Prior knowledge:
By secondary structure, the chain is α/β, with parallel strands linked by helices. It has a single domain, classed as Rossmann fold (3-Layer(aba) Sandwich), CATH 3.40.50.2020. Helix content is 39%, strand content 22%. The strands form two sheets. A five-stranded parallel beta sheet has the order 3-2-4-5-6, with helices on both faces. A two-stranded parallel ribbon has the order 1-7. Helix 2 (38-46) links the parallel strand 2 (31-36) and strand 3.
Amino acid sequence: MKVITLNPNEFTHACVRLQQLIASAGVHPDVVIGIASGGDFVAQEMFPQLPHSSVTLRRPSTARKERKWVKTVVRALPLWLRDRLRLLEAKRLARKTPKPMTTESIQLPDLSLNATTILMVDDAVDSGVTLRTVVQAIKQRYPQAEVLTAVLNVTTLNPLIKPDFVLYPQAEVLIRFPWSIDYR
C-alpha cells in the first residue's frame, strides 16, 4: 500500500475520472448526496450541475484527530513520517472489528419524490460502516430509488460495503486529500 497526496488540481482530476467511470456505466443520477465532509467535496467536483445534499455521520476517532494542536503537530512532521503514520493507522483500522452505527442520528435530506437514482459519494471507504449505515438509511427513506455509491478509494481488503464505483480499489492506495489533517 502506498500513500499519495492530491493537491487541489490533482483532486479535481481524480473526481473527473471517477465521474467519467460512472458516466461510462450509463449511470445518470438525479441527486448526489455527499457524506460530510470529504464526500461533499468529491460530490461537488464530480457533479456541480446536479442537486446536492449532505449527510453527516462520523467515527468518534475523527473528532479527536481534529483538535487544533493535533493538526499543528502532525502538519509539522516530515512527509515520510506523515506517510508512515497513515500506513500505521490503516493497519490498525484493518485489524479492528467495525462497530455498528445507528441510523437514528443521521439527518437525512428531503429529496424530490421523483428521484429515481441517488448517488451516495464519500472520499474513502475504510471499514465501510459509515457508507453502509447511510445507504441503509437512504434506502429506508426512499425505497423507490436506486441507491448507488462512489468513492475515490477503498483502504481495506474487505469493507462492510463495496462501493459501486471506485477509482482506487483493493486497498492499494491511501489518499491525503487537501482537507486532510496531515495535508500541507
